[in-house]
Specification:
It is built from 13 helices and no strands. By secondary structure, it is an all-alpha fold. The protein folds into two domains: 260 residues, no CATH class; 113 residues. InterPro entries: PrsW (IPR026898). It holds the Pfam family PrsW-protease. This is PrsW family intramembrane metalloprotease. GO terms for molecular function: metallopeptidase activity.
Length: 403
């Protein structure tokens, strides 16, 4: 029997084929990040390492908050790393070069020193930076559109790009603050950028993420939705940059605006999660005849706490291999429900739909069998179906699987 690669099945790629494009993208992004850091180190003083440290400190927490948006169907780690590195590398270095050239050869010569800096920050920087950050999302729409199953996916990838960009940009701001004004000015800038508004860039780019996600999951709006999202990102970014010239009042207005945008995005994710749960309840029962899923299993799959409890039970029964098998089963079942969503919206080509469906069902069966073959350690049955029926209960078998 051929070996099945669960990650390849869940990510919808050919098993055994190295992700050449992804590796190339990570390499280019990493080199760009190194060059950007080298420029900061070259022109910065003692504040460079202080800036690096302060910029990195909040990143783990912010990444964790972003990943909480999509716990039902987590995105592939490699794609998330690529998105972050694109923002921290290609987008940052490209923005540094283009913003500098625009300032020197366009805005300042045309509008003068003071007004040129204002025009560059309010109009030029949003246009350049959001285009560069959005390029990663447009690339996913073109090359990996099936990886984007809904708005939450688009928002997560946008957040990762934005966090990578913000981290590198903050290094420059912290470094300059320390070198120009010492610890007191550095403290003020860190409070503003690191604590008060750490999600500004992810919020800007989230508009592009929404547009790309809509295009990936709908037949209409293939061009209009991503373009509208990109324009929305530029608008939010421009308002933020422009508001700095109007003092605390201007900043207060854009803070309120960004907070409203953040609340709206959370509502969108919450509503979409409920819709995903309903799809799990609607589509998975039709596969009851395969023996892979029962109404009790569906109840387990529809709840994040129940999924977590199922993984704990699996690890208690068969250790880490059983825990991984349960994770594969849960993710494959969720992908199956989302696959039907694509079919309902007419964005799933029939042959691809059938191949993808069969691959996911095969992974569910393999995960279940790998779990059932694991020697049991406890006598209790699945907590979500103690008396059955369940795909993880074998009639007549003693021990935790039934009997």
């Amino acid at each position: 029997m051929a070996r099945v690669d669960p990650k390849a099945v869940l990510e919808g790629r050919i098993p055994g084929r190295p992700p050449v494009a992804l590796i190339a993208g990570l390499t280019v992004s990493g080199l760009c990040a190194v060059v950007a850091l080298a420029i900061d180190a070259l022109y910065g003083g003692a504040g460079f390492w202080v800036g690096v440290l302060l910029a990195i400190i909040p990143i783990p927490l912010l990444v964790a908050l972003a990943l909480m948006l999509d716990r039902l169907e987590p995105e592939p780690p490699r794609a998330l790393v690529f998105s972050f590195m694109w923002g921290a590398g290609v987008a940052v270095l490209g923005a540094l070069i283009l913003n500098t050239l625009g300032l020197l050869y366009v805005t300042v010569p045309i509008f003068g020193e003071q007004k040129g800096h204002f025009v560059s920050a309010t109009f030029g920087a949003p246009l350049i930076e959001e285009s560069l950050k959005g390029a990663a999302l447009f690339g996913m729409l073109w090359f990996r559109r099936n990886e984007i199953d809904g708005f939450a996916d688009g928002l997560i990838y946008a957040a990762m790009v934005g966090l990578g960009f913000a981290m590198m940009e903050n290094i420059t701001y912290y470094m300059r603050a320390y070198d120009d004004g010492g610890a007191q000015q550095l403290q003020a800038v860190f409070v503003l950028r690191g604590l008060v508004a750490p999600l500004s860039h992810p919020l800007f780019t989230s508009m592009t993420g929404l547009g790309v996600a809509y295009a990936a999951t709908h037949r209409r709006g293939q061009i209009l939705a991503p373009v509208a999202g990109l324009l929305g990102a530029m608008l939010l970014h421009g308002l933020w940059n422009g508001a700095t010239t109007f003092g605390l009042g201007g900043l207060g207005i854009v803070y309120v605006l960004d907070f409203c945008v953040l609340v709206a995005l959370i509502v969108i994710v919450a509503v979409e999660r409920r819709h995903t749960v309903r799809r799990i309840e609607t589509y998975l029962p039709m596969y009851a005849g395969t023996g892979l899923v029962t109404p009790q299993d569906v109840r387990m799959l529809r709840s994040i706490p129940s999924r977590r409890a199922a993984r704990r039970w699996a690890r208690g029964v068969g250790g880490a291999p059983a825990g991984r098998a349960m994770t594969d089963y849960q993710l494959a079942a969720t992908e199956l429900a989302l696959l039907h969503k694509r079919a309902d919206r007419g964005v799933a080509e029939p042959h691809w739909f059938e191949a993808r469906r069969d691959a996911l069902l095969g992974l569910m069966a393999l995960a279940r069998q790998a779990f059932l073959r694991t020697p049991p350690r406890h006598r209790a049955g699945p907590p979500w179906a103690p008396q059955g029926p369940s795909g993880f209960l074998v009639p007549g078998r003693p021990g935790p699987y039934g009997g």
